[in-house]
Amino acid sequence: METYKKYIAGILKDDKISIARSITLVENEDDASDKLLKELFKHTGKAYRIGITGPPGAGKSSLTNCLVKHLVQRNLKVGVIAVDPTSPFTGGALLGDRIRMQEVGSLNGVFIRSMATRGSLGGLSRKVVEVCDILDAAGKDFIIIETVGVGQSELDVATTADTTLVVLVPESGDAVQAMKAGLMEIANIFVLNKSDREGADGVAATIKNIIHLKPPSEDKWTVNVLKTVGSLNKGVEELLEEIFKHKNHLTESGFLKKKRKNNLRNKIFELVNNKLQSKFWDENRKGILEKTIEEMYERQLDPYSFVKEIVDFSKSE
Questions:
Q1: pTM higher than 0.90 for the full model?
Q2: Residue 180, Cα to own-chain centre: how many angstroms?
Q3: Domains within the chain, CATH numbers bracketed
Q4: What is the per-residue pLDDT across 39-71, written as a single tens digit (0 to 9) for each?
Q5: What is the spatial distance between Cα 177 and Cα 163, in angstroms, rounded to a whole number?
Q6: b/e map of 243-270 (b: 16 or more CB within 10 Å)?
Q7: pLDDT at 231
Q8: How far is the C-alpha of 34 from the C-alpha of 190, rounded, in Å?
Q9: Number of neighbouring beta carbons within 10 Å of residue 16
């Protein structure tokens, strides 16, 4: 039996070692990873995905820890993907989040993995989506994706998660006013963490005012602002109830199905683009590019004409 088939058998039994080794296959783009993901696909689509984003220092890891504990208390299985910044030296994740999550990682039914962004402009590596599928196939009821938290580059978490939390702190103050519109728009729930600090009520009121200025969402969901203190586990039960409320709203309105179909469509686009790109840039075309790059550098040829010529040439092959 091929190794990846053994991993599949283990994943379907929620075996942590099989899950971990399969994720490594995906991260390293091993030849067997496509076969593994292909076989697992029919076992996916059941897990509910929660995205947690927001600026660094907002206490996202503390909130994640608390949410995991509350979900486990309800006899639910949880997978956590902590997306860390890529180390400039090793290309790997800094693993800070996973170290902080060791306590909940030992709980029954919980699997935690830290992943590097690997230079993805969106901060959310394409591999994260594939790792979600592995955890989904393993029978996890909920998958929490905690992202790096660098503003605009975190917007793509909303295309992966079913419910997206944007976590802020009282110190956000004036930053909320100037915050990039995209980050404000992806939130299904705003969480004002560390709300025992001075200025919390004022920031909560500011966020609510911004919400009221937004046009209503297509699914007619009313975005709320919840106050928590993750380090003390305060307000987390109420936050979880709001997540379940959003989940029920999406399910009953049919928007969960619509959103997931759209995510699948985007996944197909990306898979096709990757296949076409890797197939297109064979050694011959790379050679043509290298021979022409000097002309472009000297502005004797423009990139647009070059692309048209090489694409037209490919069509005639």
A1: no
A2: 19
A3: 1-43 (no CATH), 44-253 (3.40.50.300), 281-316 (no CATH)
A4: 999 999 999 999 998 888 888 988 999 999 999
A5: 23
A6: beebbebbeeeebbeebeeebeeebeee
A7: 87
A8: 36
A9: 14
